[in-house]
Description:
This protein is α/β, with parallel strands linked by helices. The chain has a single domain, classed as Rossmann fold. Helices cover 25% and strands 24% of the residues. The chain contains five helices and eight strands, in the order βαβαββαβββαβα. The protein has helices at residues 14-27, 50-56, 84-89, 137-140, 155-166, and strands at residues 2-7, 32-36, 61-65, 70-74, 96-100, 109-113, 129-134, 149-151. The protein has a six-stranded parallel beta sheet. Helix 1 packs across helix 5 (155-166).
Amino acid sequence: MKIFGVTGWKNSGKTGLMERLVAHLTQGGLRVSTVKHAHHAFDVDQPGKDSFRHRAAGASQVLLVSHKRWVLMDELREAPEPPLAELLARMDPVDLVLVEGYKRDRHPKVEAHRAETGSALIAPEDPTIRAVASNAPDAVRGLTGGRPVFNLDDTAAIAGFIRRESGLS
C-alpha cells in the first residue's frame, strides 16, 4: 500500500485538493483511501442516538452497521493518539492512501499553499515535501529548494506526480 500526504497550514487548500485527487485517481482506476488528521475534538456520532449512548456509557468500541456502510468508533479514553503507522495498519489494502495533515510524519507529501493566507512555505525546512501546489506558483517557485511547483488547481498534474512518485504510473 502506497502512502502520500497533502499538508499545509490552515486554509491552504488541503481538503479541496484531497477531494479532487481522490476523484481523479479513482476515475483513473486506482483504489484510494484517505486519512484525515483533526487537531480538535470531533464526533461523527449524534447525541441521543443509540451508538452515542453506548459510547457515553463507557464502551471502548462501537460498531455501527447499516445496509449502506459501517463505522467502527474507538474511544481513546485518555490513551495517547495512535501513531499514523498504527492507524494505517488497520486499514484495508488499497493502491494508495492519501493522508491529509500529519505535517511531522515522514511520508512523502505535497504542500498545499494559498498566497492570501500569508503563511510561509513548509517545504524549505521539510525534506518529506516533494512538491508544492500553490495558487501563486510563480511567486513560490524560487522558495521550494528546486522541488516541482504546480498550480493548486491543476489536479491532473499533481495526481500524475503522486502516481510517479509512488510507483503507480
